[in-house]
Amino acid sequence: MCCTRALPIVFILFIFGLASLDAAEPGFSPLFNGKDLKGWFTIGHREALAVTETGDLVNDTGKSVFLVTEQDYSDFILRFRVKYDKLPKDSGWDRGVLFRSKPIWSMYSGDDGKAVRKEMSNLEGPLMATYPKPDMRGVIIWCGAGFKEKPDPQAIKVALNPDPSGWNHYEIAVVGRKTVIRINGVKVIDKHVKYDVESIKWGFTKIAFRIGRKVRYRDIRIKDLTKTLRK
């Protein structure tokens, strides 16, 4: 199952780590506080997520879950670190970060057949894969449609941590359709992504982490460029 359609992004930082990162990265603010899921909502199994004493966001259950930002973002720079404690056995294309994602809603009915509530049940939009296999790192796929933007294979070889279970630092910069992705400081994608849905090319949409088993995220922070660019 690829990205469930729905909304935005997520992550962690220790209090002291946050202070040093803020000082080194002007304009960035943490998306995850390293303690709880304040500022986020989930699609799927919320109970699968846990925050460790070191401020890592983890899922050790094997259940699928999306962590979605409550706030909408249009143009931004997103940074975070990720590592896999154990390499997944499946294809892994649906593990990573959705951006410019749109919600898919489901209607639920009562015993009388009348609609009683409307809930976000999935997400649709571009997803940057963080799967640990080199040929999948940094690939942008479309959850719900099926296009694929592949990174420069030579850049990937230079960028990746040689330890498959080690930490890798990702940066996603999105301005309009212009999308730049860096892994450990190395640019692996710099393209105008051909979004399939017209309304997602420019607009306020969610950021979401699809968090699979034995994966850890930390130091999630964002720089919102929307106000700056629209002055």
Structural write-up:
Helices cover 9% and strands 43% of the residues. The protein contains three helices and 15 strands. Strands 1, 3, 4, 6, 11, 12, 13 and 15 form an eight-stranded antiparallel sheet that branches. Strands 2-5-14-7-8-9-10 form a seven-stranded antiparallel sheet, with no helix packed on it. The chain has 231 residues and is mainly β. The N terminus is likely disordered. The termini are far apart. It has one domain: Exo-inulinase, domain 1 (Jelly Rolls, Sandwich). The chain is globular and about 60 Å long.
Quick recap of the structure?
The protein has helices at 15-24, 153-159, 226-229, and strands at residues 29-30, 40-44, 49-51, 57-59, 65-69, 76-84, 96-109, 115-129, 140-143, 148-149, 168-175, 178-183, 186-192, 206-211, 215-224. By secondary structure, it is mainly beta.
What is this structure's SSE topology?
Layout: H1 15-24, E1 29-30, E2 40-44, E3 49-51, E4 57-59, E5 65-69, E6 76-84, E7 96-109, E8 115-129, E9 140-143, E10 148-149, H2 153-159, E11 168-175, E12 178-183, E13 186-192, E14 206-211, E15 215-224, H3 226-229
Antiparallel strand pairs: 1-15, 2-5, 3-4, 4-15, 5-14, 6-11, 6-15, 7-8, 7-14, 8-9, 9-10, 11-12, 12-13
| Biggest sheet character | 8 strands, antiparallel
CATH architecture: Sandwich
Order of helices and strands: HEEEEEEEEEEHEEEEEH
How many domains make up the coordinates?
A: 1
Summed over residues and divided by their number, the pLDDT gives a mean of 75
For this structure, the CATH topology is Jelly Rolls
